[in-house]
Amino acid sequence: MNKFKEGFLWGGATAANQFEGGWNAGGKGLSTADVMTGGTHTTPRRITPELEEGTYYPSHEAIDFYGHYKEDIKMFGEMGFKTFRMSINWSRIFPNGDDLEPSEEGLKFYDNVFDELKKYNIEPLVTISHYETPFGLTKKYNGWASREVIDCYIRYCETIFKRYKNKVKYWLTFNEINCLTIDFGAFMGGGILVKEGENSDQLRFQALHHQFIASAKAVKLGHEINPDFKIGCMIAYMTLYPYTCNPDDILLAQQKDQIQNGLCGDVQVRGHYPGFAKRYFEENNIKIRMEKDDENILREGCVDFYSFSYYMSNAVSTDPEKQETSGNLLGGIKNPYLKASDWGWQIDPKGLRWTLNHIYDRYQIPVMVVENGLGAVDVVEEDGTINDDYRIDYLRDHIVEMNEAVKDGVDLMGYTMWGCIDLVSASTGEMKKRYGFIYVDKDNEGTGTLERKPKKSFYWYKKVIESNGENLE
Protein backbone atom coordinates (compact mmCIF):
# COMPACT_ATOMS: atom_id res chain seq x y z
CA MET A 1 0.00 0.00 0.00
CA ASN A 2 2.84 2.39 0.76
CA LYS A 3 4.97 1.58 -2.27
CA PHE A 4 5.30 3.17 -5.67
CA LYS A 5 3.89 0.85 -8.33
CA GLU A 6 6.04 -1.61 -10.23
CA GLY A 7 7.33 0.08 -13.37
CA PHE A 8 7.14 3.53 -11.75
CA LEU A 9 8.80 5.99 -14.12
CA TRP A 10 11.69 7.52 -12.15
CA GLY A 11 13.80 9.96 -14.11
CA GLY A 12 14.71 13.53 -14.88
CA ALA A 13 13.38 16.39 -17.00
CA THR A 14 14.87 18.98 -19.36
CA ALA A 15 13.83 21.22 -22.26
CA ALA A 16 15.65 21.74 -25.55
CA ASN A 17 15.68 25.53 -25.25
CA GLN A 18 17.47 25.31 -21.90
CA PHE A 19 20.05 22.59 -22.50
CA GLU A 20 20.28 21.47 -26.13
CA GLY A 21 22.25 24.30 -27.74
CA GLY A 22 23.30 23.88 -31.39
CA TRP A 23 20.99 26.83 -32.13
CA ASN A 24 22.02 27.14 -35.78
CA ALA A 25 23.50 23.66 -36.36
CA GLY A 26 22.06 21.15 -38.79
CA GLY A 27 19.81 23.69 -40.49
CA LYS A 28 17.91 24.62 -37.31
CA GLY A 29 15.90 27.84 -37.46
CA LEU A 30 15.46 30.47 -34.76
CA SER A 31 13.09 29.68 -31.91
CA THR A 32 11.50 32.19 -29.54
CA ALA A 33 14.08 31.14 -26.91
CA ASP A 34 16.92 32.03 -29.30
CA VAL A 35 15.98 35.73 -29.32
CA MET A 36 15.85 36.04 -25.50
CA THR A 37 18.95 37.60 -23.94
CA GLY A 38 20.56 36.63 -20.66
CA GLY A 39 19.22 38.14 -17.46
CA THR A 40 19.40 37.78 -13.70
CA HIS A 41 17.04 37.52 -10.76
CA THR A 42 16.73 41.33 -10.78
CA THR A 43 17.29 42.08 -14.50
CA PRO A 44 14.63 40.68 -16.85
CA ARG A 45 15.56 38.95 -20.09
CA ARG A 46 14.95 41.00 -23.24
CA ILE A 47 13.31 39.87 -26.49
CA THR A 48 15.26 41.10 -29.52
CA PRO A 49 13.37 40.61 -32.82
CA GLU A 50 16.76 40.92 -34.55
CA LEU A 51 19.83 39.27 -33.02
CA GLU A 52 22.22 41.86 -31.57
CA GLU A 53 25.95 41.46 -32.11
CA GLY A 54 27.84 41.14 -28.82
CA THR A 55 24.71 40.21 -26.86
CA TYR A 56 24.60 36.98 -24.88
CA TYR A 57 21.79 34.56 -25.78
CA PRO A 58 21.88 31.65 -23.30
CA SER A 59 19.96 29.15 -25.46
CA HIS A 60 22.43 29.37 -28.36
CA GLU A 61 24.89 27.05 -26.68
CA ALA A 62 23.02 26.29 -23.43
CA ILE A 63 24.97 23.28 -22.08
CA ASP A 64 25.41 21.77 -25.56
CA PHE A 65 23.49 18.52 -25.18
CA TYR A 66 23.61 18.64 -29.00
CA GLY A 67 27.30 17.80 -28.79
CA HIS A 68 27.30 15.88 -25.49
CA TYR A 69 24.16 13.73 -25.70
CA LYS A 70 26.00 10.41 -25.52
CA GLU A 71 27.94 11.44 -22.42
CA ASP A 72 24.83 12.88 -20.73
CA ILE A 73 22.60 9.89 -21.47
CA LYS A 74 25.32 7.56 -20.20
CA MET A 75 25.23 9.43 -16.87
CA PHE A 76 21.42 9.20 -16.78
CA GLY A 77 21.87 5.47 -17.36
CA GLU A 78 24.33 5.29 -14.46
CA MET A 79 21.67 6.79 -12.19
CA GLY A 80 19.24 4.14 -13.42
CA PHE A 81 16.71 6.45 -15.06
CA LYS A 82 13.58 4.65 -16.20
CA THR A 83 12.46 7.68 -18.21
CA PHE A 84 13.94 10.93 -19.52
CA ARG A 85 11.71 13.91 -20.19
CA MET A 86 13.02 16.04 -23.05
CA SER A 87 11.55 18.24 -25.74
CA ILE A 88 11.97 18.29 -29.48
CA ASN A 89 13.03 21.68 -30.77
CA TRP A 90 10.30 22.42 -33.33
CA SER A 91 12.56 24.72 -35.36
CA ARG A 92 15.13 21.93 -35.68
CA ILE A 93 12.51 19.94 -37.63
CA PHE A 94 10.72 22.84 -39.38
CA PRO A 95 13.15 25.80 -39.33
CA ASN A 96 10.51 28.46 -40.02
CA GLY A 97 7.60 26.60 -38.45
CA ASP A 98 5.44 26.66 -41.58
CA ASP A 99 7.80 24.78 -43.92
CA LEU A 100 6.08 22.06 -45.94
CA GLU A 101 8.95 19.57 -45.64
CA PRO A 102 10.90 18.68 -42.49
CA SER A 103 14.66 18.79 -42.06
CA GLU A 104 16.07 15.28 -42.35
CA GLU A 105 19.17 16.33 -40.42
CA GLY A 106 17.01 17.51 -37.53
CA LEU A 107 14.96 14.32 -37.51
CA LYS A 108 18.15 12.23 -37.57
CA PHE A 109 19.50 13.99 -34.47
CA TYR A 110 16.51 12.87 -32.40
CA ASP A 111 16.71 9.36 -33.91
CA ASN A 112 20.24 9.24 -32.49
CA VAL A 113 19.09 10.53 -29.09
CA PHE A 114 16.27 7.97 -28.85
CA ASP A 115 18.59 5.16 -29.94
CA GLU A 116 21.09 6.18 -27.26
CA LEU A 117 18.34 6.21 -24.61
CA LYS A 118 17.28 2.73 -25.68
CA LYS A 119 20.83 1.46 -25.06
CA TYR A 120 20.25 2.21 -21.36
CA ASN A 121 16.59 1.10 -21.31
CA ILE A 122 15.45 4.66 -20.73
CA GLU A 123 11.93 5.47 -21.96
CA PRO A 124 11.71 8.91 -23.61
CA LEU A 125 8.93 11.25 -22.46
CA VAL A 126 8.75 13.88 -25.19
CA THR A 127 7.29 17.37 -24.86
CA ILE A 128 6.25 18.43 -28.36
CA SER A 129 6.29 22.19 -27.66
CA HIS A 130 8.25 23.49 -24.67
CA TYR A 131 8.71 27.27 -24.83
CA GLU A 132 10.42 27.00 -28.23
CA THR A 133 7.93 28.09 -30.89
CA PRO A 134 9.74 28.74 -34.19
CA PHE A 135 10.39 32.47 -34.30
CA GLY A 136 9.34 32.45 -37.96
CA LEU A 137 5.76 31.86 -36.75
CA THR A 138 6.02 34.87 -34.45
CA LYS A 139 7.18 37.11 -37.29
CA LYS A 140 4.61 35.84 -39.80
CA TYR A 141 1.53 35.17 -37.65
CA ASN A 142 2.29 36.62 -34.18
CA GLY A 143 2.57 33.05 -32.96
CA TRP A 144 -0.40 31.27 -31.44
CA ALA A 145 -2.53 34.41 -31.61
CA SER A 146 -3.31 33.23 -35.15
CA ARG A 147 -5.26 30.09 -35.96
CA GLU A 148 -2.97 29.32 -38.92
CA VAL A 149 -0.36 28.02 -36.49
CA ILE A 150 -2.59 25.03 -35.60
CA ASP A 151 -1.99 23.48 -39.03
CA CYS A 152 1.77 24.08 -38.73
CA TYR A 153 1.79 22.32 -35.35
CA ILE A 154 -0.24 19.35 -36.62
CA ARG A 155 2.11 18.95 -39.60
CA TYR A 156 4.99 18.89 -37.11
CA CYS A 157 3.16 16.36 -34.89
CA GLU A 158 2.36 14.07 -37.79
CA THR A 159 6.01 14.13 -38.84
CA ILE A 160 7.42 13.19 -35.43
CA PHE A 161 4.60 10.74 -34.54
CA LYS A 162 5.25 8.77 -37.73
CA ARG A 163 9.03 9.03 -37.54
CA TYR A 164 9.31 7.97 -33.89
CA LYS A 165 6.22 5.79 -33.52
CA ASN A 166 8.33 2.80 -32.50
CA LYS A 167 10.78 4.80 -30.36
CA VAL A 168 8.56 7.05 -28.23
CA LYS A 169 5.48 6.00 -26.29
CA TYR A 170 4.88 8.96 -23.95
CA TRP A 171 4.15 12.46 -25.27
CA LEU A 172 3.11 15.83 -23.81
CA THR A 173 1.44 18.26 -26.22
CA PHE A 174 2.42 21.60 -24.62
CA ASN A 175 4.60 22.47 -21.67
CA GLU A 176 2.84 24.41 -18.90
CA ILE A 177 0.04 25.33 -21.29
CA ASN A 178 -1.64 27.37 -18.55
CA CYS A 179 1.18 29.92 -18.61
CA LEU A 180 -0.98 31.68 -21.22
CA THR A 181 -3.45 32.56 -18.44
CA ILE A 182 -0.91 35.11 -17.14
CA ASP A 183 0.95 37.98 -18.87
CA PHE A 184 4.34 36.31 -18.47
CA GLY A 185 3.28 33.52 -20.81
CA ALA A 186 2.44 35.56 -23.93
CA PHE A 187 5.86 35.24 -25.58
CA MET A 188 7.29 32.31 -23.65
CA GLY A 189 4.31 30.02 -24.19
CA GLY A 190 2.59 31.56 -27.18
CA GLY A 191 5.28 33.25 -29.26
CA ILE A 192 3.14 36.41 -29.08
CA LEU A 193 4.49 39.96 -29.15
CA VAL A 194 1.88 42.14 -27.45
CA LYS A 195 1.86 45.68 -28.86
CA GLU A 196 1.22 48.70 -26.69
CA GLY A 197 -2.51 49.26 -26.27
CA GLU A 198 -3.48 45.72 -27.27
CA ASN A 199 -5.71 43.65 -24.98
CA SER A 200 -3.20 41.09 -23.69
CA ASP A 201 -5.94 38.97 -22.09
CA GLN A 202 -7.79 38.67 -25.39
CA LEU A 203 -4.64 37.70 -27.31
CA ARG A 204 -3.49 35.16 -24.73
CA PHE A 205 -6.79 33.38 -24.17
CA GLN A 206 -7.47 33.23 -27.91
CA ALA A 207 -3.99 31.74 -28.34
CA LEU A 208 -4.78 29.30 -25.54
CA HIS A 209 -7.90 28.21 -27.41
CA HIS A 210 -5.79 27.59 -30.51
CA GLN A 211 -3.42 25.45 -28.41
CA PHE A 212 -6.39 23.52 -26.97
CA ILE A 213 -7.55 22.72 -30.51
CA ALA A 214 -4.01 21.81 -31.59
CA SER A 215 -3.55 19.57 -28.57
CA ALA A 216 -6.88 17.77 -29.12
CA LYS A 217 -6.10 17.22 -32.81
CA ALA A 218 -2.64 15.92 -31.89
CA VAL A 219 -4.08 13.45 -29.36
CA LYS A 220 -6.53 12.08 -31.91
CA LEU A 221 -3.88 11.91 -34.65
CA GLY A 222 -1.35 10.28 -32.34
CA HIS A 223 -3.77 7.53 -31.36
CA GLU A 224 -4.52 6.87 -35.03
CA ILE A 225 -0.80 6.56 -35.86
CA ASN A 226 -0.04 4.35 -32.85
CA PRO A 227 -2.86 3.27 -30.51
CA ASP A 228 -0.24 2.49 -27.85
CA PHE A 229 0.79 6.15 -27.56
CA LYS A 230 0.09 7.74 -24.16
CA ILE A 231 -0.41 11.47 -24.66
CA GLY A 232 -0.74 13.85 -21.74
CA CYS A 233 -1.29 17.48 -20.87
CA MET A 234 1.22 19.44 -18.80
CA ILE A 235 0.15 22.13 -16.34
CA ALA A 236 2.29 24.46 -14.23
CA TYR A 237 0.42 23.78 -11.02
CA MET A 238 0.15 27.01 -9.06
CA THR A 239 -0.88 25.68 -5.66
CA LEU A 240 -2.65 28.45 -3.77
CA TYR A 241 -3.78 28.68 -0.17
CA PRO A 242 -6.10 31.33 1.27
CA TYR A 243 -3.93 33.43 3.60
CA THR A 244 -6.67 33.50 6.24
CA CYS A 245 -10.04 31.86 6.86
CA ASN A 246 -11.71 35.12 5.79
CA PRO A 247 -14.32 33.95 3.23
CA ASP A 248 -13.00 36.61 0.82
CA ASP A 249 -9.53 35.00 0.89
CA ILE A 250 -11.04 31.53 0.45
CA LEU A 251 -13.11 32.63 -2.56
CA LEU A 252 -10.10 34.41 -4.08
CA ALA A 253 -7.97 31.24 -3.77
CA GLN A 254 -10.73 29.18 -5.39
CA GLN A 255 -11.19 31.64 -8.27
CA LYS A 256 -7.46 31.82 -9.00
CA ASP A 257 -7.18 28.03 -8.84
CA GLN A 258 -10.05 27.68 -11.30
CA ILE A 259 -8.58 29.98 -13.96
CA GLN A 260 -4.85 29.36 -13.50
CA ASN A 261 -5.05 25.58 -13.01
CA GLY A 262 -8.56 24.22 -13.58
CA LEU A 263 -9.39 25.82 -16.93
CA CYS A 264 -6.65 24.04 -18.89
CA GLY A 265 -7.07 20.76 -17.07
CA ASP A 266 -10.83 20.76 -17.63
CA VAL A 267 -10.58 21.45 -21.36
CA GLN A 268 -7.80 18.93 -21.98
CA VAL A 269 -9.06 16.14 -19.70
CA ARG A 270 -12.84 16.62 -19.85
CA GLY A 271 -13.02 17.98 -23.39
CA HIS A 272 -15.00 21.18 -22.80
CA TYR A 273 -14.75 24.63 -21.25
CA PRO A 274 -15.85 24.71 -17.58
CA GLY A 275 -18.77 26.84 -16.45
CA PHE A 276 -16.65 29.30 -14.48
CA ALA A 277 -14.77 30.31 -17.65
CA LYS A 278 -17.85 32.04 -19.10
CA ARG A 279 -18.10 34.55 -16.26
CA TYR A 280 -14.34 35.15 -16.25
CA PHE A 281 -14.33 35.84 -20.00
CA GLU A 282 -17.29 38.21 -19.73
CA GLU A 283 -15.81 40.16 -16.83
CA ASN A 284 -12.43 40.51 -18.57
CA ASN A 285 -13.75 41.44 -22.02
CA ILE A 286 -12.45 38.22 -23.58
CA LYS A 287 -14.33 36.88 -26.61
CA ILE A 288 -13.11 33.45 -27.73
CA ARG A 289 -13.56 33.00 -31.48
CA MET A 290 -14.50 29.39 -32.13
CA GLU A 291 -15.14 27.61 -35.40
CA LYS A 292 -18.20 25.40 -35.70
CA ASP A 293 -16.43 22.08 -35.16
CA ASP A 294 -14.21 23.21 -32.27
CA GLU A 295 -16.38 21.76 -29.52
CA ASN A 296 -16.34 18.33 -31.22
CA ILE A 297 -12.56 18.52 -31.68
CA LEU A 298 -12.07 19.20 -27.96
CA ARG A 299 -14.36 16.32 -27.01
CA GLU A 300 -12.57 13.87 -29.29
CA GLY A 301 -9.04 14.82 -28.18
CA CYS A 302 -8.98 14.26 -24.42
CA VAL A 303 -5.57 13.37 -22.97
CA ASP A 304 -4.62 9.99 -21.50
CA PHE A 305 -2.87 11.30 -18.40
CA TYR A 306 -2.32 14.53 -16.47
CA SER A 307 1.23 15.76 -15.86
CA PHE A 308 2.30 18.88 -14.01
CA SER A 309 5.16 20.88 -12.54
CA TYR A 310 5.28 21.56 -8.81
CA TYR A 311 7.95 23.61 -7.06
CA MET A 312 6.19 25.44 -4.27
CA SER A 313 2.92 26.84 -3.00
CA ASN A 314 1.79 30.42 -2.52
CA ALA A 315 -0.83 32.12 -0.40
CA VAL A 316 -3.34 34.69 -1.68
CA SER A 317 -5.03 37.48 0.20
CA THR A 318 -7.48 40.30 -0.43
CA ASP A 319 -5.31 42.45 1.86
CA PRO A 320 -3.04 44.59 -0.35
CA GLU A 321 -0.60 45.18 2.52
CA LYS A 322 0.63 41.58 2.73
CA GLN A 323 4.26 40.91 1.77
CA GLU A 324 4.71 39.23 -1.60
CA THR A 325 7.27 36.61 -2.61
CA SER A 326 8.37 35.12 -5.95
CA GLY A 327 7.65 31.76 -7.55
CA ASN A 328 7.41 29.68 -10.73
CA LEU A 329 5.52 31.87 -13.26
CA LEU A 330 3.65 33.61 -10.46
CA GLY A 331 4.36 34.98 -6.99
CA GLY A 332 2.06 35.27 -4.03
CA ILE A 333 1.85 36.18 -0.37
CA LYS A 334 4.67 35.05 1.92
CA ASN A 335 3.58 32.06 4.00
CA PRO A 336 4.92 32.39 7.58
CA TYR A 337 4.96 28.58 8.01
CA LEU A 338 7.35 27.88 5.12
CA LYS A 339 11.05 28.33 4.36
CA ALA A 340 12.16 29.61 0.95
CA SER A 341 14.89 28.86 -1.60
CA ASP A 342 17.70 31.25 -2.55
CA TRP A 343 15.35 32.64 -5.20
CA GLY A 344 12.44 33.20 -2.79
CA TRP A 345 10.41 30.16 -3.86
CA GLN A 346 8.61 28.76 -0.84
CA ILE A 347 9.39 25.12 -0.02
CA ASP A 348 6.24 23.11 0.69
CA PRO A 349 6.50 19.31 0.30
CA LYS A 350 3.08 18.74 1.90
CA GLY A 351 1.65 21.01 -0.76
CA LEU A 352 2.63 18.37 -3.33
CA ARG A 353 0.52 15.77 -1.52
CA TRP A 354 -2.37 18.22 -1.39
CA THR A 355 -1.95 19.01 -5.11
CA LEU A 356 -1.80 15.36 -6.17
CA ASN A 357 -5.00 14.62 -4.27
CA HIS A 358 -6.69 17.74 -5.60
CA ILE A 359 -5.87 16.83 -9.22
CA TYR A 360 -6.74 13.15 -8.92
CA ASP A 361 -10.01 13.83 -7.10
CA ARG A 362 -10.99 16.14 -9.96
CA TYR A 363 -10.01 14.02 -12.97
CA GLN A 364 -9.55 10.36 -11.97
CA ILE A 365 -6.91 9.69 -14.62
CA PRO A 366 -3.24 8.73 -14.11
CA VAL A 367 -1.06 11.58 -12.84
CA MET A 368 2.66 12.28 -13.24
CA VAL A 369 4.96 14.83 -11.58
CA VAL A 370 7.18 15.91 -14.48
CA GLU A 371 8.94 18.88 -12.85
CA ASN A 372 10.02 19.31 -9.24
CA GLY A 373 13.36 20.51 -7.97
CA LEU A 374 15.41 23.07 -6.11
CA GLY A 375 17.27 25.88 -7.84
CA ALA A 376 20.31 26.74 -5.70
CA VAL A 377 23.88 28.05 -5.79
CA ASP A 378 26.20 25.03 -5.78
CA VAL A 379 29.83 25.22 -4.64
CA VAL A 380 32.58 23.02 -6.07
CA GLU A 381 34.91 22.10 -3.17
CA GLU A 382 38.69 22.02 -3.49
CA ASP A 383 38.58 18.26 -3.94
CA GLY A 384 36.04 18.62 -6.77
CA THR A 385 33.01 17.38 -4.81
CA ILE A 386 29.65 19.16 -4.78
CA ASN A 387 27.83 18.49 -1.50
CA ASP A 388 24.25 19.49 -2.30
CA ASP A 389 22.58 18.09 0.82
CA TYR A 390 19.98 20.88 0.64
CA ARG A 391 18.81 19.46 -2.71
CA ILE A 392 18.69 15.94 -1.33
CA ASP A 393 16.61 17.19 1.62
CA TYR A 394 14.21 19.00 -0.72
CA LEU A 395 13.73 16.01 -3.02
CA ARG A 396 13.49 13.49 -0.16
CA ASP A 397 10.73 15.50 1.53
CA HIS A 398 8.76 15.74 -1.73
CA ILE A 399 9.13 12.03 -2.51
CA VAL A 400 7.88 11.19 1.01
CA GLU A 401 4.75 13.26 0.33
CA MET A 402 4.28 11.64 -3.10
CA ASN A 403 4.31 8.30 -1.29
CA GLU A 404 1.63 9.61 1.08
CA ALA A 405 -0.46 10.62 -1.93
CA VAL A 406 -0.09 7.10 -3.35
CA LYS A 407 -1.36 5.77 0.00
CA ASP A 408 -4.24 8.26 -0.32
CA GLY A 409 -5.21 6.45 -3.53
CA VAL A 410 -3.66 8.67 -6.21
CA ASP A 411 -2.72 6.77 -9.40
CA LEU A 412 0.82 8.13 -9.78
CA MET A 413 2.73 7.07 -12.92
CA GLY A 414 6.13 8.59 -12.39
CA TYR A 415 8.41 11.41 -11.28
CA THR A 416 10.93 13.35 -13.37
CA MET A 417 12.99 15.77 -11.32
CA TRP A 418 13.48 19.07 -13.10
CA GLY A 419 16.83 20.00 -14.50
CA CYS A 420 18.47 16.63 -13.81
CA ILE A 421 21.58 18.17 -15.35
CA ASP A 422 22.37 21.86 -14.77
CA LEU A 423 20.80 24.01 -17.46
CA VAL A 424 19.83 27.59 -18.30
CA SER A 425 16.99 29.06 -16.24
CA ALA A 426 13.97 29.80 -18.45
CA SER A 427 12.86 32.82 -16.42
CA THR A 428 16.23 34.53 -15.84
CA GLY A 429 18.64 32.96 -18.33
CA GLU A 430 21.06 32.20 -15.48
CA MET A 431 23.31 29.19 -14.96
CA LYS A 432 23.95 30.18 -11.33
CA LYS A 433 20.50 28.86 -10.40
CA ARG A 434 21.35 25.15 -10.56
CA TYR A 435 18.96 22.20 -10.28
CA GLY A 436 20.92 19.21 -11.52
CA PHE A 437 22.31 15.96 -10.20
CA ILE A 438 25.08 16.69 -12.70
CA TYR A 439 27.18 19.85 -12.48
CA VAL A 440 28.05 21.64 -15.73
CA ASP A 441 31.00 24.03 -15.77
CA LYS A 442 29.43 27.18 -17.16
CA ASP A 443 28.59 30.58 -15.65
CA ASN A 444 26.00 33.31 -16.15
CA GLU A 445 28.15 35.01 -18.80
CA GLY A 446 28.34 31.82 -20.88
CA THR A 447 31.96 30.95 -20.13
CA GLY A 448 33.19 27.57 -18.90
CA THR A 449 34.52 24.23 -20.10
CA LEU A 450 31.09 22.46 -20.13
CA GLU A 451 32.72 19.64 -18.13
CA ARG A 452 30.15 17.38 -16.46
CA LYS A 453 30.59 15.99 -12.95
CA PRO A 454 28.19 14.21 -10.58
CA LYS A 455 27.04 15.93 -7.38
CA LYS A 456 26.34 14.15 -4.10
CA SER A 457 22.65 14.03 -5.10
CA PHE A 458 23.59 11.96 -8.19
CA TYR A 459 24.51 8.98 -6.01
CA TRP A 460 21.57 9.55 -3.67
CA TYR A 461 19.03 9.51 -6.54
CA LYS A 462 20.61 6.34 -7.92
CA LYS A 463 19.75 4.60 -4.61
CA VAL A 464 16.22 6.04 -4.68
CA ILE A 465 15.60 4.56 -8.12
CA GLU A 466 17.22 1.20 -7.29
CA SER A 467 14.90 0.83 -4.29
CA ASN A 468 11.80 2.16 -6.10
CA GLY A 469 11.60 5.05 -3.65
CA GLU A 470 12.15 3.07 -0.44
CA ASN A 471 15.75 4.08 0.28
CA LEU A 472 15.71 7.85 0.81
CA GLU A 473 18.73 8.06 3.14
From TrEMBL:
PROSITE patterns: GLYCOSYL_HYDROL_F1_2 (PS00653)
E.C. number(s) listed in UniProt: 3.2.1.86
Protein keywords: Glycosidase, Hydrolase
Keyword Hydrolase: yes
Keyword Manganese: no
Lineage: superkingdom: Bacteria
Protein name per Swiss-Prot or TrEMBL: 6-phospho-beta-glucosidase
Species: Clostridium cibarium
Lineage: Bacteria, Bacillati, Bacillota, Clostridia, Eubacteriales
